[in-house]
């Protein structure tokens, strides 16, 4: 479960360490990050469809999966790779479709390095960041922002974030891990203010016939 938390929330991370070690908070990068964060926090809710591509040079693997996540405040519902992860701020349900099994646990933010509802504010604490210039993505100009975690034990050592120059939206990001794996996330569709209710962020057992419930609370 934490694997999914990590890659979704990698939205903010690192630059080349040789540059970032002497840069705490680049004012130019901070201005762009603040505008991005403000854009998403102003929404009651939003839904993102994405593709994740894993590249593992050591294993000579390159594979992609698709998923989507709906976020509202500190609540989210993530669907990816045969799993659904639902968090209502107090309880987390992790449903494994193949096994027809759901695990229920208490939400403890202190146990989670990154969570989806923190992705647009994560840079405000525990990270250095630097502006990396402009690039083109899909014909659109994007700002490149790199963040480096202050915690040297963090297994994520670099993430490069692409933010639209036109509207401050996140277009993609690439996460680098110390084990050599690289994860690229591209947003394929963005839906602002989709209809959400309390049931959006709760697991309804009646909709999953014969589901096995493992309650860890």
Automatic annotation (TrEMBL):
A Pfam family this protein belongs to? LolA
Where would one find the signal peptide in this protein?
1-20
Q: What is the lineage of its organism?
A: Bacteria, Pseudomonadati, Bacteroidota, Cytophagia, Cytophagales
InterPro entries reported in the protein's UniProt record: LolA/LolB/LppX (IPR029046), OM_lipoprot_carrier_LolA-like (IPR004564)
Provide this UniProt record's keywords sorted from A to Z: Lipoprotein, Signal
What is the protein name given in its UniProt record? Outer membrane lipoprotein carrier protein LolA
């Amino acid at each position: 479960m934490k694997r999914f938390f990590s890659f979704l929330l990698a939205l903010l991370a690192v630059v080349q360490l040789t540059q970032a070690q002497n840069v705490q908070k680049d004012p130019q990068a901070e201005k762009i990050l603040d505008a991005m964060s403000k854009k998403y926090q102003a929404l009651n809710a939003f839904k993102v469809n994405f593709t994740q591509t894993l590249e593992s040079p050591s294993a000579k693997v390159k594979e992609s999966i698709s998923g989507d996540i709906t976020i509202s405040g500190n609540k989210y519902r993530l669907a990816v790779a045969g799993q659904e992860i639902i968090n209502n701020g107090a309880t987390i349900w992790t449903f494994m479709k193949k096994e027809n099994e759901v695990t229920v646990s208490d939400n403890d933010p202190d146990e989670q390095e990154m969570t989806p509802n923190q992705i647009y504010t994560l840079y405000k604490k525990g990270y250095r960041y630097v502006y990396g210039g402009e690039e083109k993505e899909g014909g659109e100009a994007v700002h490149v922002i790199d963040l480096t975690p202050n915690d040297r034990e963090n297994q994520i050592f670099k993430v490069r974030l692409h933010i639209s120059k036109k509207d401050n939206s996140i277009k993609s990001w690439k996460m680098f891990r110390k084990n050599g794996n690289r994860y690229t996330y591209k947003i394929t569709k963005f839906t602002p203010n989709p209809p959400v209710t309390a049931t959006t962020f709760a697991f309804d057992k009646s909709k999953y016939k014969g589901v096995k419930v493992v309650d860890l609370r």
